[in-house]
Specification:
Length: 326
């Protein structure tokens, strides 16, 4: 099983689960129980009316899909390079010194936290304690989608609960104060859900844009992208060819194409419209261009083009002018 032992990522991943479980408990205890509890339920183990049982099942399904998507995003190899040698007549060939001079496909980047090259690395996300690459980008997007859905549903249920309480009071001046626990818990969950919706919506927008442009976040900063065709083809590369599996947190992405080139953007294009070339290797969590070297392939493996031409016998480094890998 794939797992990154990063204390910060483990802490944030655990916090994610705690917040979701807390919101689930508050909704079930202070909303669904209050509205739909009955002494004659259809199922003895679920003391709700039919409407309450339906709402409970829908809410728990959304929470479960969010949990499973997060777990799959955490424990899935995001795209470690499985092909150790480049295809015949492939050029240019780059190697990663941090990965023991192994072959580095054009759209691969070395993650400082995962300590290996990841194909189509988007970014390293501490909330899932893992990189987001081609192999787990579907799980990351589903996690964002199901979490935001659960947050919106939670806000609606809390708002309806508050409105129902106010509606049933004959006079606000004579209305009894609601329980302290319900007010505090409801307030905390409301703030949590609003923050989640705002936070997650930005990530979802970035992910949709990356699929549309066939470019990862790292490549966006580096002003490059993969081969562009249609949104449908780009989407299928991440979610698979069959639409039946798109909403299900199971592996369905297309096999990686390590030969896909990293195509430079138009000369007048710049991230954020600043017109500047950016060097954000540290912020993005990737190793800079100094870890790459141009190489030529031989039957014995990767060899420098000019062995011994530089001090220490190191291969000549190939920089992109941006301080980070192509």
């Amino acid at each position: 099983m794939w797992f990154i032992c990063d204390p910060f990522g483990i802490a944030l991943g655990t916090l994610t689960w705690v917040m979701v479980i807390f919101a689930d408990w508050v909704v079930c205890r202070h909303v669904i129980d209050v509205w739909f509890a009955t002494d004659v339920p259809r199922f003895d183990w679920l003391p709700y009316t039919d409407a309450g049982a339906t709402l409970f099942a829908f809410y728990q399904l959304t929470i479960a899909l969010s949990f499973i998507s997060h777990l799959r995003a955490v424990t899935t190899d995001p795209g470690t390079i499985s092909q150790h040698s480049p295809p015949d007549n492939f050029s240019p060939i780059k190697q990663c010194k941090l990965c023991r001079d192994s072959w580095k496909p054009p759209r691969a980047h070395h993650c400082k936290t995962c300590r290996r090259c990841i194909f189509r690395m988007d970014h390293h996300c501490p909330w899932i304690n893992n990189c987001v690459g081609q192999a787990n980008q579907k799980f990351f997007i589903l996690f964002l989608g199901y979490t935001s859905t659960a947050a919106v549903v939670t806000l609606i249920l809390l708002a309806c609960s508050a409105a129902s309480w106010l509606w049933n009071q004959p006079s606000l001046s004579e209305a009894p104060l609601p329980g302290t626990a319900s007010v505090i818990c409801g307030g905390l969950v409301s703030v949590e859900c609003i923050a989640v919706v705002l936070f997650v919506s930005d990530f979802l927008q970035e992910q949709i844009e990356s699929i549309t442009q066939n470019s990862t976040l790292v490549e966006t900063y580096q002003r490059s992208h993969g081969t562009r065709s249609s949104f449908t083809n780009h989407f299928k590369a991440i979610f698979g060819a069959s639409w039946l599996w798109w909403p299900v947190p199971c592996t369905s992405c297309m096999p990686p194409d390590y030969t896909e080139p990293a195509i430079p953007d138009e000369p007048d294009y710049a991230y954020g419209g600043s017109g500047q070339q950016l060097d954000d290797s540290d912020q993005l969590g990737i190793a800079g261009g100094e870890t790459e070297a141009s190489a030529q392939w031989s039957p014995e493996g990767i060899r420098p083009r000019r062995p011994g031409a530089e001090a220490g016998g190191e291969s000549r480094q190939r920089h992109t002018g941006r301080g980070s890998p192509e």
